[in-house]
Specification:
Blueprint lengths: L4 E5 L5 H14 L10 H9 L6 E7 L4 E12 L4 E11 L8 H15 L5 E2 L7 H9 L15 H9 L2
Parallel strand pairs: 4-5
Antiparallel strand pairs: 1-2, 2-3, 3-4
Length: 163
């Protein structure tokens, strides 16, 4: 029998568990080599003077975090409204199939609704067919015509210093 699970806003004492779950996600996505964040980074980003993001955690009845969602505000010039970007959503493998991921996503969607957000957006790796099928099944558009552009800090600095 599975433990009952609830979704709640993350607290500062959840940060070590969230970072552990992020490590599991990084392993799953074959991106562990890119994970350089530390607990103090998340304490500042989620609970500092000017939080950059917010998090929800899925916890068992014994308060063990077994999943999380991290999101932040965006803005769409086309819609003319703020939106929410879902940076990560993850549930431990042994708890999958219990609609916990759907609960987390619905909780973020509720926040988007409360904020009158014009959009809720996220990305998915092109090889993660299970996630793609799930997102399509809940009504999300998986947009094949868009690509993500990214500069890490060193590339931002190099760009600034370029001609």
């Amino acid at each position: 029998m599975t433990n009952p699970v609830s979704i709640r806003p993350a607290r500062p004492d959840d940060v070590p568990a969230i970072l552990g779950l992020i490590g599991e996600l990084a392993d799953f996505e074959k991106l562990r080599h890119q994970l350089v964040a530390k607990e103090e980074d998340f304490q500042e980003a989620l609970f500092g003077e000017q939080p950059a993001a917010a998090a929800l955690v899925a916890v068992t009845d014994d308060s063990q975090p077994i999943g999380y969602a991290i999101y932040f505000s965006t803005f769409s010039t086309f819609v003319g409204k703020a939106g929410i970007w879902l940076e990560d959503i993850y549930v431990r493998p042994e708890f999958r199939g219990q609609k916990i991921g759907k609960q987390l996503l619905k909780s973020v969607a509720e926040i988007a609704k409360q904020r009158n957000a014009g959009r809720l957006e996220w990305c998915v790796l092109d090889w993660n067919q299970n996630a793609i099928e799930f997102y399509e099944s809940i009504g999300a558009d998986v947009m094949p015509d868009w690509r993500i552009c990214r500069m890490d800090r060193s590339r931002v600095e190099a760009f600034i210093d370029s001609d």
